[in-house]
């Protein structure tokens, strides 16, 4: 019984570590580093 609980907890921990990717942070880093033209154009259209 204890082995099954540990296995379930380890699967959950691995799931959170693998699939918890901060997509908004990655997108912001991409915009800051590469400064894509489509993002600049959308900002220029806003103002």
Model description:
The mean pLDDT is 85. The longest helix is centred in the first third of the chain and has 18 residues. The protein is mostly helical and 47 residues long.
Radius of gyration, whole Å: 20 Å
Number of strands: 0
Uncertain runs are none
The amount of beta strand, in percent, is under 5%
Distance between the termini: 62 Å
Helix content: over 70%
Mean pLDDT: 85
SSE class: mainly alpha
Assembly state: single chain
Tally of contiguous helical segments = 3
What pattern of helices and strands is seen along the backbone?
Answer: HHH
The major β-sheet equals: none
* Shape field: rod-shaped
Brief rundown of the structure:
The chain has 47 residues and is an all-alpha fold. Helix content is 85%, strand content 0%.
List strands and helices in order, with pairings:
Blueprint: H1 2-19, H2 23-34, H3 37-46
List keywords for this structure.
47 residues, mainly alpha, 85% helix, 0% strand
